[in-house]
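Re: [ENG-882] Designed sequences occasionally contain unexpected residues at chain ends

Forwarding the minimal case from QA. Structure tokens:
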């Protein structure tokens, strides 16, 4: 008997899920057959929002030789670049594909699109039907033992299972960026943003991490002439990636964590700091010729962003041991988060999150050099501390800050929020998630996204009940797993969710749980 799966989202998570599902099916040829519907609102399948067609100035922050959409194919992107130069060289003539280069994000999107088509073809050869649908999913409701996914174009898809693989979800729209005096909720795609804004107008960017840097670089490179003011609540700016390669840790790995958790059911922040410190010492045992850096914990926000970037650029010319150690935590970061004491989770997010993200999510030197040049020219300025955006109908937006007891107000042609996915799913631009949350069919997670069973990836309701056939993977699960945006982490969770769905529904023999009190769709 055939089972039907609906995957909401056709980006990197969906791609990795399909590839892993095919592997599970190949290893279990006598299991039930499957039809998989993939619903994607973007024009193409594979890139998703994060890697969609955009300005070539948006570059990855992971080296080309280290990134892949597949769990069992490390370095697949680099291999694809050298196997298919005819597909991309004309579009990106200035990019030289080396293992240590940072590729344009839309180029990685081309790779994902090409890979998606390849995986769909492979699925057909394995007798798995994949049906691609260009539409926006706006609701999922349980009808009997099935789930009905509704789209904005009034198409209803009935399936046994639904996987929400929505990827990055922007903030809810505020105003159209095409209108002068707009407050814009999301800078992407920056290629459109650069066409909307008036070149001479001053612009405020709220946020100072990767999306903010993408927006600033794109605007200046496309000839923006007005001042660009970047508002950072924490005052931190991303670190700049050094020349180090991958590092095999001694303590921050699954084997050591298994032993530790067997004796300690929970982990404290002090335990994690100890593991990081021990692995940093181990790094220098393995690399005695590498220079040590003084890292203060907790660090203080820089007094001068210009001096900070200059220092970072100097250090980024060398291997940076602390970066090698921190980046290695990708392999176990959700295990650390799940085992961390509740009070320490809250303390970390309240006191150290901005610091961690500035260290952990670094940028390539070329973007650091660009930002530094913009600052020295006087076109880009940074402001730290809390800020407030206000705008009356028909007026220009204002950003206000309290400086030494005095409120400073600045008027802008545009204010652009570059703050990533909202923590509260009800503040997102997803009608699907807002509908599910408003009915109680899914439960917002305390630390962001929605609540799931972290073993099975099944979604839980506002009453704590588990949906037998509704799953989530990717950015929607950020509160459960803490850090979900790195490609290797996306791939790992997609693989685990595919394994869970396959074992629970295609080969496993298990008793169905009690019927869930979830909303019914109108037949």
């Amino acid at each position: 008997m055939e089972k039907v799966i609906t995957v909401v989202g056709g980006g990197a998570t969906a791609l990795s899920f399909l590839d892993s599902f095919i592997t599970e099916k190949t290893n279990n040829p006598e299991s039930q057959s499957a039809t998989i519907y993939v619903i994607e609102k973007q024009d193409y399948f594979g890139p998703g929002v994060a890697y969609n067609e955009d300005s070539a100035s948006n570059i990855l922050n992971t080296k080309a030789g280290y990134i892949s959409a597949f769990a069992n194919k490390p370095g697949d992107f680099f291999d694809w670049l050298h196997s298919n130069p005819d597909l991309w060289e004309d579009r990106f003539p200035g990019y030289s594909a080396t293992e240590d280069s940072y590729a344009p994000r839309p180029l990685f999107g081309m790779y994902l699109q090409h890979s998606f088509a390849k995986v769909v073809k492979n699925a057909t050869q394995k007798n798995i039907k994949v049906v691609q649908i260009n539409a926006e999913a706006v609701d999922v409701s349980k009808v009997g033992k099935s789930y009905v996914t509704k789209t904005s174009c009034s198409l209803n898809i009935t399936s046994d299972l639904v996987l929400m693989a929505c990827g990055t979800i922007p903030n809810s729209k505020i105003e159209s960026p095409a209108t002068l005096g707009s407050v814009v909720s999301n800078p992407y795609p920056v290629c459109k943003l650069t066409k909307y804004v008036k070149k001479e107008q001053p612009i405020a960017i709220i946020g100072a991490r990767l999306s903010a840097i993408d927006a600033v670089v794109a605007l200046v490179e496309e000839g923006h002439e007005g001042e660009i003011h970047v508002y950072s609540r924490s005052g931190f700016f991303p670190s700049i990636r050094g020349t180090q390669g991958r590092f095999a840790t001694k303590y921050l790995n699954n084997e050591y964590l298994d032993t530790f958790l067997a004796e300690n059911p929970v982990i404290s922040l002090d335990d994690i700091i100890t593991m990081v410190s021990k692995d940093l010492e181990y790094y220098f045992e393995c690399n005695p010729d590498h220079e040590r850096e003084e890292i203060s914990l907790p660090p203080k926000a820089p007094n001068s962003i210009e001096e900070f970037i200059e220092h970072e650029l100097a250090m980024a010319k060398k291997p940076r041991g602390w970066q090698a150690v921190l980046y290695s935590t990708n392999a176990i970061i959700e295990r650390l988060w799940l085992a961390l004491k509740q009070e320490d989770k809250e303390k970390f997010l309240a006191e150290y999150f901005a610091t961690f993200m500035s260290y952990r999510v670094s940028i390539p030197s070329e973007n650091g050099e660009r930002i530094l040049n913009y600052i020295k020219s006087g076109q880009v300025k940074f402001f730290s501390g809390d800020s407030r955006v206000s705008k009356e109908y028909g007026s220009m937006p204002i950003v206000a800050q309290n400086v030494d007891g005095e409120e400073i107000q600045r008027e802008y042609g545009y204010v652009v929020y570059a703050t990533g996915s909202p923590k509260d799913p009800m503040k997102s631009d997803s009608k699907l998630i807002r509908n599910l949350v408003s009915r109680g069919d899914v439960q917002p997670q305390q630390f962001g996204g929605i609540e799931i069973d972290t073993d099975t990836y099944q979604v839980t309701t506002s009453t704590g009940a588990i949906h037998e056939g509704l799953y989530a993977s990717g950015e929607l699960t950020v509160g459960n797993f803490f850090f979900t945006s790195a490609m290797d982490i996306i791939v790992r969770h997609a693989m685990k969710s595919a394994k869970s769905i396959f074992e629970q529904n295609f080969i496993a023999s298990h008793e169905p749980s009690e019927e869930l009190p979830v909303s019914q769709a109108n037949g």
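QA comment: On inspection the terminal residues look reasonable. The first strand starts at residue 3 and ends at 8. Proposing we downgrade this to a documentation issue.
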